[in-house]
């Protein structure tokens, strides 16, 4: 059961990236980010209210228990970290091809592992060292492909944005391991969604009202689907890891394979360039990540 849940989670996560790309095309980033977050909030409002009113009981599938002040602060910190990652990723995704963004995003577990080595003193076995070397090798090979398209770390800040967003996402993954041991998963998802809106609202107001020159915002049907697909992907993921017989290493590897979906979409639908080389390097990164997670 947990394996099927993980595969569906990866499916929704893959299309989540495609929906973001489509929503951001020639569009303002901050409103897209805000309304995607607002959709998630609207999904969880009835769940929290029904939990508070006693319609949903403890032990129910989607029951969201009350949180203590300390737990609220923990979720608020998670929200802040995730939003930093999203801001970098959204701006990068708007300006870079999917076939560049997807492989870089695939390296996320590498940076999570580096963080675990530094913070927790974890030890690597030979397979994990091999996976780290392989992932780094193919990651840096992407710089050669980027140069063919005029994208390099020297002249394109968006390349640094996607790396910064990926590393911030890895910090979030490390923090998730900590917070989910102490706080109910449904409550984390619900209040995380609420705090997104609270943090983004003043930023959106400042950017849209106080800046004389701003990119116009266009409403698209893909924008609310961003929030919906993320909620479903995360819910399936959290449910899968809560299964007693589930293997977190296998779940993480399968979930990371979601990058294949936006990569194929960018290659086949958007007609992006140098697909064969990128596919080779993406394959190398995914093999390296598999060694890291399964080693």
From TrEMBL:
<feature type="transmembrane region" description="Helical">
    <location>
        <begin position="126"/>
        <end position="146"/>
    </location>
</feature>
<feature type="domain" description="EamA">
    <location>
        <begin position="2"/>
        <end position="137"/>
    </location>
</feature>
<protein>
    <submittedName>
        <fullName>Transporter family protein</fullName>
    </submittedName>
</protein>
<feature type="transmembrane region" description="Helical">
    <location>
        <begin position="219"/>
        <end position="241"/>
    </location>
</feature>
<keyword id="KW-1133">Transmembrane helix</keyword>
<dbReference type="GO" id="GO:0016020">
    <property type="term" value="C:membrane"/>
</dbReference>
<dbReference type="InterPro" id="IPR000620">
    <property type="entry name" value="EamA_dom"/>
</dbReference>
<feature type="transmembrane region" description="Helical">
    <location>
        <begin position="30"/>
        <end position="51"/>
    </location>
</feature>
<keyword id="KW-0812">Transmembrane</keyword>
<feature type="domain" description="EamA">
    <location>
        <begin position="157"/>
        <end position="293"/>
    </location>
</feature>
<feature type="transmembrane region" description="Helical">
    <location>
        <begin position="247"/>
        <end position="271"/>
    </location>
</feature>
<feature type="transmembrane region" description="Helical">
    <location>
        <begin position="187"/>
        <end position="207"/>
    </location>
</feature>
<keyword id="KW-0472">Membrane</keyword>
<dbReference type="Pfam" id="PF00892">
    <property type="entry name" value="EamA"/>
</dbReference>
<feature type="transmembrane region" description="Helical">
    <location>
        <begin position="72"/>
        <end position="93"/>
    </location>
</feature>
<feature type="transmembrane region" description="Helical">
    <location>
        <begin position="158"/>
        <end position="175"/>
    </location>
</feature>
<feature type="transmembrane region" description="Helical">
    <location>
        <begin position="278"/>
        <end position="294"/>
    </location>
</feature>
<dbReference type="InterPro" id="IPR037185">
    <property type="entry name" value="EmrE-like"/>
</dbReference>
